[in-house]
UniProtKB/TrEMBL annotation:
Pfam families, per database record: ECH_1
UniProt keyword Cell membrane present: no
Lineage of producing organism: Eukaryota, Metazoa, Chordata, Craniata, Vertebrata
Family the UniProt entry places it in: Belongs to the enoyl-CoA hydratase/isomerase family.
Protein name: Enoyl-CoA delta isomerase 1, mitochondrial
Organism: Bos mutus grunniens
NADP keyword on record: no
């Protein structure tokens, strides 16, 4: 499997991705609902459903994990689906959206880093880096159709796309709220934020752990459009058409020119970034606050 980073990254899950997917439908195709014609075959896995439309060259990728928390399995399945579409010259764009009601993506799956050993935390963080690198540098046009809450790691997934359309619902807030959980966004999340909304706005939003409701997200430039919920998908398709109207080679080289330095910074320090992450999250104090936070989330439900 070709990796965005070259040769250094080889988490067990990605070396044996199919082992994780035993019993799932990844690799199998089935007719899309209401489809059946050319290009209407969907494929997917337990946690990622892909609805490809060969005629338009656009695939809709739907996340369908509980709360779309980024578990190791979800990260792995996302990378595999992305790679599959990247390698198929039929496709020029992906619309990324959620199949879970009210949540686009809940960010890091905190159960992957709470009560786990350092080796697991390292494997998990490398998978997170890998997904970000692949999305951020993807040659395809990625449009995020954000149809639910989008905190922290969810916001990073959205920021890795080329364009963001957010549903106009005050509950669907978006931003990097790490500081409020007592954790710190690593430099590459910070860089992605700065590249999108600028230095001063990022400085404020990161320190305050701001989660922006739709109108404010639009104002600060975190999203490109805010539309009624039932128009998110159609607006994402219109945005996609606008981006696909540009010749691929020119758009791809320009994207690379804009993003490469940010990605290279992580590639140069990937191991150190992993070590920082692991030593930080494995501290007793951080483990205690993660535990308390997870407990709060579980109780809130009841
Ligand atoms: C100095 C060196 C520094 C080095 C770097 C160090 C650290 C870097 C780490 C930085 C990166 C952090 C990025 C992150 O993503 S942290 C995660 C942040 N995410 C959140 O805070 C979101 C928490 N979730 C929510 O706010 C809500 O769940 C919601 C997304 C708004 C959805 O609300 P609702 O629809 O009401 O769903 P529930 O709240 O009932 O949740 C359902 C279910 O899902 C569980 N859950 C939710 N989020 C997570 C999660 N992120 N991880 C794990 N599990 C989650 C929740 O507990 C419920 O579970 P049960 O059904 O089992 O009860």
């Amino acid at each position: 499997m070709a990796l965005a980073s070259g040769v250094r990254f080889a988490p067990r899950a990605l070396l044996r991705p199919w082992a994780l997917l035993r019993g799932t439908t990844l690799g199998r195709t089935e007719p899309a609902a209401g489809g059946g014609g050319d290009g209407a075959r969907r494929f997917g896995s337990q946690r990622v459903l892909v609805e490809p439309d060969a005629a338009s060259g656009v695939a809709v990728m739907k996340l369908r994990n509980p709360s779309n928390a980024l578990s190791l399995e979800l990260l792995t399945e996302l990378v595999i689906s992305l790679e599959k579409l990247e390698n198929d010259k039929t496709f020029r764009g992906i619309i990324l959206t959620s199949d879970c009601p009210r949540v686009f993506c809940a960010g890091l799956d905190l159960t992957e880093i709470c009560g786990r050993n350092p080796a697991h935390c390292a494997e998990y963080w490398k998978a997170m880096q890998e997904l970000w690198l692949r999305m951020y540098l993807s040659s395809l046009v990625l449009v995020a159709a954000i149809n639910g809450a989008c905190p922290a790691g969810g916001c990073i997934i959205a920021l890795s796309c080329d364009c963001r359309v957010l549903a106009d619902n005050p509950k669907y807030r978006i931003g990097l709220n790490e500081t409020l959980l007592g954790i710190i966004a690593p430099f590459w999340l910070k860089d992605t934020y700065v590249n999108t909304i600028g230095h001063r706005a990022s400085e404020q939003a990161l320190q305050l752990g701001s989660l922006f409701p739709p109108a404010e997200a639009l104002q600060v430039g975190l999203v490109d459009q805010v539309v009624p919920e039932d128009q998110v998908q159609s607006t994402a398709l219109s945005e996609m058409a606008r981006w696909l109207a540009v010749p691929d080679h020119a758009r791809q080289l320009t994207k690379n020119m804009m993003r490469k330095a940010t990605a290279d910074r992580l590639l140069r320090q990937r191991d150190a970034d992993t070590q920082n992450f692991v030593s930080f999250v494995c501290r007793d104090s951080i483990q205690k606050s993660l535990q308390a936070y997870l407990e709060k989330l579980r109780q809130r439900k009841g």
